[in-house]
TrEMBL record:
CDD domains: ABC_Carb_Monos_I
Pfam family, one: ABC_tran
SMART domains noted in UniProt: AAA (SM00382)
Organism: Flexivirga caeni
ABC transporter domain segment(s): 15-259
Name by which UniProt lists this protein: Sugar ABC transporter ATP-binding protein
Domain of life: Bacteria
PANTHER family referenced in this protein's UniProt entry, alphabetically: CARBOHYDRATE TRANSPORT ATP-BINDING PROTEIN MG119-RELATED (PTHR43790), SUGAR ABC TRANSPORTER ATP-BINDING PROTEIN (PTHR43790:SF8)
Keyword Repeat applies: no
Length: 261
């Protein structure tokens, strides 16, 4: 199912889910949730506390397994038993609690968990890292994404601002997320200026053709960035809205149940 727009009528979802259910004991977090992300779009996911946003994203990113329902990537049914499964399939997630190593430089953080070793015995036996290659390729990634806030790839992350640290995490996800990047509240702990910098990076990723799932409580940011808005309510998808045809008041009313979709 798509939202009926002419653009999406011609496309197949890059990531989709149908009838996802997930319970934690007696609590039903997902009650037959559907989801669709189309190529080259920013899809915002909004919902009140307890709406099932986190459970939905955990299922899509491999952090949790649904009790029932199906997930599709490029039209093929997939089963993610761990976040690594999702990463191997090309889905990268940036969580609100940034998994960066402050003492390491930007390049080392981009390759955290994916370190490149030197060729020959130095790499295979002595396990030496190819620092020069990682820095060169990290600079290429950052330049290709058009991220202007990260100038010195050798700078320790602990010396960066909150917005720059978020840029590092987003750049890492974009460098290895070949299919989808999921961003969980990327501007929650940032000031106005740094939020604007991160918003610019998100737009650049979309302009490079990378589909993005944006989970956010920041309605102005949602309406500035999103191509479509997935409204989650009571464990299900309540509606899919367009910022061009709906207002923030519309979204909040549907999200809280004050108005039907």
């Amino acid at each position: 199912m798509n939202d009926g727009s002419p653009a999406n009528a011609r496309k197949e979802p890059v990531l989709s889910a149908t009838a996802l259910r997930k319970a934690y004991g007696r609590v039903e977090a997902l009650r037959g949730a559907d989801f669709e992300l189309f190529p080259g779009e920013i899809l915002a996911v909004i919902g009140d506390n307890g709406a099932g946003k986190s459970s939905l994203i955990k299922c899509l990113s491999g952090a949790s397994s649904p009790d029932s329902g199906e997930i599709y990537l490029d039209g093929k049914k997939v089963t993610f038993r761990s976040p690594q499964d999702a990463k191997d399939a090309g889905i990268e997630t940036v969580y609100q609690t940034l998994a960066v190593a402050p003492a390491l430089d930007i390049a080392s953080n981009l390759y955290l968990g994916r370190e490149i070793r030197k060729s020959g015995l130095l790499g295979s036996v002595l396990r030496h890292m190819d620092i020069a290659r990682m820095r060169r390729e990290a600079r290429e990634h950052v330049n290709r994404l058009g991220i202007q806030t990260l100038q010195d790839i050798t700078q320790p992350v602990e010396t960066l601002s909150g917005g720059q640290r978020q840029a590092v995490a987003v750049a890492r996800a974009a460098a290895f997320g070949s299919k989808v990047v999921i961003l969980d509240e990327p501007t929650a702990a940032l000031g106005v200026r740094e939020s604007a910098q991160v918003a610019a990076i998100i737009k650049q990723l979309r302009d490079h053709g990378l589909p993005i799932v944006l989970i956010s409580h920041d309605m102005p940011s949602v309406f500035e960035l999103a191509d479509r808005i997935h409204v989650q309510r009571l464990g299900r998808r309540a509606a899919v809205l367009s910022p061009q045809t709906h207002t923030m008041e519309d979204a909040v009313a549907i999200m809280t149940g004050a108005r039907a979709a």
